Amino acid sequence: MQRNTALLKDAKKALAETSRTFIIPISHLGPGLQEAVISGYLGMRAIDEIEDHPTMDREAKIYLLQSVSSLLITDYTDEEFRSLFEPYKKDLPAVSIRLADWIKLAPPQTKSLICQYTSTMAQGMADWVMKNWDIKDKEDLDDYTYYVAGLVGIMLSDLWNLYGEHEVSKDKSVAFGRGLQLVNIISNRVEDLERGVNFHPPGWSFDEMMSYARQNLKDAESYTSRIKLDPIYNFCKIPLALANGTLDAIESGKSKLNRVSVLKIVSGAVR
Asked: For residues 220 and 236, what is the distance between their CA atoms, to the nearest angstrom?
C-alpha cells in the first residue's frame, strides 16, 4: 500500500498532541496496520473531544455526536463534515475538525469497520451526554466504559484479525479498553468532579475502584498473552504496563508516572 505521507505526518503529530498512552506502542506497528490503528484512534479521539468539551453546551454535544454517528455509516462527503463542524470551529480542537481526514488514512479493507465502531461510539457518547453522565451503579459504569473504551478493544481485535493475528478474544478485548479507561477515571477524579461529573458508582470507595480497574487489567493481560505477533503484542502490552504502573504510582501517593518510570516500564514490556 502506498502511504499518504503528508496525511500520516499530520496524523502522527495529532497523535503526539493527544495521547501519551498510544504514541509509543503505535510506533511498533508495521505499514498498513499502523495507518489503520492511527485512523481508528484519532477518529475516536475526535468524538471524545466533543463529549469531554469543557464549555460546549449539552445540546450542541448531542447534536454533533448524533450527526457524526449518522454520517459515518453513509457514503458521506468531506463537505458534509465541513458543514457540520463549521459553526463550531472556534470551539473544537483540530483533531475533531479533521475527523474526515483521519478516516482517509485507513486502508480500504479497514475503513468500514473503523467507521462502524466510531459511529456506535458516537451514539453511545450522545446517550450518556443526555443522561448527564449519571452513573447510578456498576452496570452504568460498565455501559459507559463499554461505549467510550470497550469498543476500542473490539475494533482493535478486528484489525488484528485482518492483519494475521487470530488468537484474540473479543470478550476480553472489552476489558482491554475498559481497564485503560478506569485508570483514566481514577487519574482524572479531581478534574471530573470539578466539572460536575462523577464516574464512581454511589458508595464505591477508592479501594473498590482500584480493585475493579486491576481486575479488568488482569483480564486484559490474559487477552494480550495469547497474541503471537510481536508488534501487536507490544502494542497491547505497553499501555497495560503503563496503566498498572500508573495505579502503583497513585497508590504510593503520586499523581502520575515520571518520564524515567515511563521509559523503564516500556523497555520492560516489549518482547
From this structure: 9
- pTM metric for this prediction: 0.94
Contact 138, 211 (CB under 8 A): no
Q: Which three cell numbers stand for residue 169?
A: 478474544
Q: Which of left, alpha, beta for 132 (phi over 0: left; psi -120 to 50: alpha)?
A: left
- In three-state secondary structure terms, 1 is coil
Tell which residue, 32, 14, 2, has the closest CA to residue 110.
Answer: 32
The residue among 249, 19, 42, 40 whose CA lies nearest residue 160 is 40
Tens of pLDDT, residues 109-161: 999 999 999 999 999 999 999 999 999 999 999 999 999 999 999 999 999 99
Report which of residues 43 and 266 the model is more confident about: 43
* Residue carrying C-alpha cell 473531544: 49
C-alpha cell at position 55: 464549555
Helix axes of 170-187 and 230-251: crossing angle, nearest 10 degrees:
30
For residue 87, how many other CB atoms are within 10 A of its CB? 11
- Whole-number pLDDT of residue 3: 61
Residue 1 has pLDDT above 50, yes or no: no
CB 174 within 8 A of CB 153: yes
**Amino acid of residue 224:** T
* Average confidence score pLDDT of the chain: 94
**3-state class of 105 per DSSP?**
coil
